[in-house]
Write a structure and sequence with these properties.
Low-confidence stretches: none
Helix content: 55-70%
Mean pLDDT: 79
Radius of gyration: 30 Å
Strand content: under 5%
Length: about 120
């Protein structure tokens, strides 16, 4: 089963990462080049991906970098799943105590006010 983090380049559109590299190096024919440019115009994610690929000086290292990124992404997702996913918000005990105390003081103050304002019969 393919995990959602297996290929970070396919998050936004369906384009082969190798095709992006070929486009960057000018190895595509005019029809394929136009198709890639249309996808880049529609997808800011792909445009950023192409810009990032263009900034890599040694193109042979791209596959290793992509594999390393996918490995770290998979590792982080699996470790987060083992921890229980998301962190639970904890409610501090002192805050609960202070809230209950304030509410009780307000209720007692209201009762005393009503007792003082009610005329004695």
């Amino acid at each position: 089963m393919k995990q959602p983090w297996d290929d970070i380049l396919n998050a936004d559109a369906t384009i082969d990462p190798q095709k992006l590299l070929d486009y960057l190096e000018g190895r595509l024919d005019d029809k394929e080049k136009h198709a890639v440019e249309a996808m880049l115009a529609d997808s800011p994610f792909l445009d950023d991906a192409l810009e990032g690929l263009g900034n890599v000086k040694d193109k042979q290292k791209i596959a290793a970098i992509l594999q390393e990124l996918n490995h770290h992404l998979r590792h982080n997702a699996q470790s987060r799943n083992r921890r229980g996913g998301t962190k639970k918000l904890s409610f501090p005990g002192w805050l609960l105590f202070a809230t209950v105390t304030i509410i009780l003081l307000a209720v007692i103050g209201f009762i005393i006010y009503k007792m003082l304002m009610t005329p004695a019969a």
